Amino acid sequence: MKDKDDSLFAPTSKATRTINTAKRSLRRLRQILMRRRILALIFTGLLLYHFLSNSGLWFLPAFRWGSSKFVIILAVNQGGGVMQWKGPQEWAVERTSIANKRAYADKHGYDLAIQDMSIKKRYAHEWRESWEKVDVIRQTMKQYPKAEWFWWVDLHTYIMEPSVTLERQVFNRLDNVTYRNISSYNPLALPTNLPFVESNHQINMIIPQDCGGFNLGSFFIRRSEWTDFLLDIWWDPVFYEQRHMQWEHKEQDALEHLYTGQAWIRSGIAFIPQRLINSFPPGACNDQAGDRRIFYNEEDRDFVVNMAGCEWGRDCYGEMEHYKQLSLDLQKRKRSWFSLWS
Fold first, then answer.
1. CB atoms within 10 A of CB 134
2. Sequence-distant (≥ 6) Cβ neighbours of residue 22 within 8 angstroms
3. Are residues 211 and 297 in the same domain?
4. Looking at residue 134, which CATH number applies to its domain?
5. How buried is 146 (Cβ within 10 angstroms: 0-12 exposed, 13-18 middle, 19+ buried)?
6. Does 97 have pLDDT greater than 60?
7. Is 26 in the same domain as 77?
8. Using CA atoms, how far apart are residues 130 and 141, in angstroms rounded to an integer?
9. Three-class SS of residue 12?
10. Of 142, 130, 46, which is closest to residue 83 (Cα–Cα)?
11. Is residue 227 domain-shared with residue 291, that is, in the same domain?
């Protein structure tokens, strides 16, 4: 006589096996759908984070997608000065400037090229003081072959509004913030009867003007065939030998000369109001004191301040520390204001 429990070990019927198979398939389907749902939520979250972080919100660092189209070029004398050994304050200024640009680049996903100028040699004409800017730009373009725009900023600059992206400040409204005709603002009194430059030419270089003319302390240059030709002629040794003793502002005067004499160069250059990318502190451009087109305005929250000429009779360290602290205070005010409305 069979034990009653022997039925527990009876072969599973075909119907039961079919039901169990269906249940397992259903569980797998649910797992697959759950995974897909989780992946979709992650992707949506990353996409939302990308757009919000690059919109300039102070509390969100930018998410980086591949190689940046923007490269910030900062030329420094790390490892020792070129003209002379740097003292403690010069080192402090350099560290502050580097930290400022690095934090900004990291926040928005830009590349930062810190170019050490101490490797240069200064003898005869092989060291072109301030002219090396042209060669550094060309070298940086080789280092970052996928980048489109290169932002040169001098060491004595400070990004005051780190939450503002380059896209928001300039490139999302490029046609609205740049101008081609210098007749409305012409500090150098350059000839204004030059052949007209059509506005539909591609912009390859964006320069602010200050009281002394073209300012190359903060400017943008695009990778292009036009730029290749410009850098070649700008750096040409024959051109340099013939003119460098006549030009007080060196590579800046050279560019102004090229702009005046070459229509193809004018076709690629656009100008931008100075305070959008290169505000000056009091003490620079003394003869234009009070000119709202030139000087940093705290109420307007200007983007960048350039302590141009601070090494000639002013206190570079003091100015850098002042604007560093002011920027920190401005960001605290912004966070306080945000917390009131959150």
1. 22
2. none
3. yes
4. 3.90.550.10
5. exposed
6. yes
7. no
8. 18
9. coil
10. 130
11. yes
Q: Containing H/E element for 283?
A: none
* Rounded Cα distance, 113 and 274, in Å: 23
> What are φ and ψ of residue 274, in 5° steps?
-55, -45
Tens-digit pLDDT profile for residues 223-262: 999 999 999 988 766 566 566 556 555 778 888 888 988 8
What pLDDT is stored for residue 171 in this prediction?
96
pLDDT above 60 (res 67):
no
Cβ atoms 116, 77 nearer than 8 A: yes
C-alpha of 293 from chain center: 22
* Mean per-residue pLDDT, 263-273: 94
- Residue 77 belongs to domain spanning: 54-337
Return d(Cα 280, Cα 253) in angstroms, integer.
20
Contact 244, 250 (CB under 8 A): yes
Q: Which two tokens stand for residue 211?
A: 């009281």
Q: How many CA atoms lie within 13 A of 180 on its CB side?
A: 19
Regarding whether 135 and 260 lie in a shared domain, the answer is: yes
Tokens of 80: 């020792």
Whether residue 342 is contained in a domain is answered as: no
* DSSP symbol at 196: P
Residues 47 and 109: their CA atoms lie apart, in Å, by 15
Residue 220 shares a structural domain with residue 98: yes
- Which residue has tokens 């003091």? 318
Secondary structure (DSSP) of 207-270: EEEETTEE--SEEEEE-SHHHHHHHHHHS-HHHHHHHTTT-TTTHHHHHHHHHHH-HHHHTTEE
Which residue has tokens 């490892």?
79
Same domain flag for 68 and 43: no
Place of tokens 């200007």: 302
Q: How far is CA 112 from CA 70, 210, 269, in A?
A: 9, 26, 24
**Which candidate, 307, 315, 239, 298, places its Cα nearest to that of 278?**
307
Count of the separate structural domains present in the chain: 2
Residues 145, 288 within the same domain? yes
Taking the C-alpha atoms of 181, 187, 190 and 195 in order, what is their torsion angle to the nearest 10 degrees?
Answer: 0
Helix (H, G, I), strand (E, B) or coil at 73: strand
